[in-house]
Amino acid sequence: MLLKNKKILLGVTGSISAYKACEIARLFVKSGADVRVVMSEAAKRFVSPLTFEALTRQTVLHEGSESWANSLNHIEAAKECDIFVIAPATANTINKLSKGIADNILLQCALACPKPILVAPAANTQMLKNHYTAGSLKMLAVNEYEIVQPQEKILACGDLGSGALAEPEEIYWRSVQLLSQDSYWKDRRVVVTGGGTREKIDEVRYLSNFSSGKMAKALVLALYARGADVCYVTTVADEKLPDGVYVVPVENAQEMLEYTQDAIRIAKKGKMSKVTMNSSEAIHKIQKRPFLFMAAAVSDYMPKFPQEGKLKKQLLGESWALEMKQAPDILSSLDKDGVSVVGFKAEMDADEGLANAKSLLAQKKIDAVCYNYLKNSQSFGTDENEITFITKEGVLPLGKADKLSLSFKILEKAQELSE
Which residues are known to be catalytic? Predict the structure, then answer.
């Protein structure tokens, strides 16, 4: 329920992509938002207002339904919403928005809206590339409109190019970010590791573990929602994540060590931004202390002699002794100076598990540990988790919940590490 108690005004214009707005509305509603739809007359040629009314349980605002006897009008709809999402936005709508034209009810809502406005273009490639439309999109960005870039694919007209509406999930997450971002996490560089490493035996076999990477993915989504600049080093690189998340796919422990160290090195450099002072430009370094969330399940051992090609069982015989060596200890090996580090520890020892997790603070020289007790292999890959947040100051049970909710709780406690 990420958007519980949030009011979203969803604007739908006359694009063939209007049917995708139904899925966008569904995602908002499923997330607990109060959704009202405003449609241009052209949009009604593609999707009926009744469809959106069935999805949102709200009367759709359009030229024929607007009323000044209640709140179903462009002024009240614009005032009451927390965000105005226009998806799809045609080239015609984009050009009018940039000029302040309000000759239909949707554009009137935009002109009257004091809240964040997100625009997701959908049009023929040449219509979007036209210098008028390109200039309009730049003008909207300058005026703090959030633009969700279209996809490149074969369009409804048959042309191949950029112009297809962004995926509904991308529009949803960008909206969540605008509504949920936090000043502490906004633009803070964060590295997250996730998934179980795979250690090569030969070209068709590897050693791994039961880690699903779901907890790490939930952390990434929570950080993205809060506005963090996230680098995700993962063995599960095929997950659907917002475009703003930088994903680094890896396979084994050595790769994870190297790429995580590189990501931390970049994170510690900070960001550069231009700030105008007395009509001259000065460069200011904006530096927030970066974070590392080490949620990956890294193999303790790896084959000592990984083989090229495929090992044949006829040559190996009835028994096979695989010689192993220790895998790199990533948390101990990383240069963590200047970085707040949260480790993750899964244990199956009910008696000593918590003590083992506490010992990581000193052993690995980290700031906090997220500990969870697992009963058996069936505990992996579930949608819920139970986390205990451990620091030098004490032990705090965060309870059992879905992994995304737990991730937000972890961020709240992690924030206290550098305050």
Answer: 157
Residue 349 class from Cβ within 10 Å (0-12 exposed, 13-18 middle, 19+ buried)? exposed
159, 179, 199 - which closes a domain:
179
Q: What is the mean pLDDT of residues 18-31?
A: 98
The answer, yes or no, to whether the previous bond of 88 is cis (omega within 30 of 0) is yes
Indicate the helix (H) or strand (E) that contains 129.
helix 125-129
328 and 378 fall within a common domain? yes
Neighbours of 332 (CB within 10 A): 11
3-state secondary structure of 367: coil
Partner residues linked to 196 by β-bridges: 297
Q: Is the pLDDT of residue 285 over 60?
A: no
Specify the pLDDT at position 270: 62
Last residue of a domain, one of 139, 154, 179: 179
Give the C-alpha distances (Å, rounded to integers) separating 331 from 363, 365, 390, 411, 417: 9, 8, 16, 20, 18
Give burial (CB, 10 Å; 0-12/13-18/19+) of 42: middle
Q: Considering the chain, what percentage of its residues have pLDDT values greater than 70?
A: 95
Using a cut of 0.85, tell me whether the model's pTM lies above it.
yes
Strands 246-249 and 199-200: unpaired
pLDDT digits (tens, 9 = 90+) for 29-50: 999 999 999 999 999 999 999 9
Query: Terminal CA-to-CA distance of the chain, rounded, Å?
Result: 28
User: Are 283 and 226 found together in one domain?
Assistant: yes
pLDDT at 278: 43
User: Could you tell me how many residues make up the chain?
Assistant: 419
Considering the domain architecture, whether residues 222 and 137 belong to the same structural domain is answered as no
264 and 379: one domain?
yes
R_g (Cα) of the chain, nearest Å: 25
Domain, as residue range, for 52: 7-179
pLDDT digit string, tens, across residues 378-416: 677 788 899 999 999 999 999 999 999 999 999 999 999
Pairing relationship of beta strands 189-194 and 291-294 according to DSSP bridges: parallel
φ and ψ of 244, to 5 deg: -75, -5
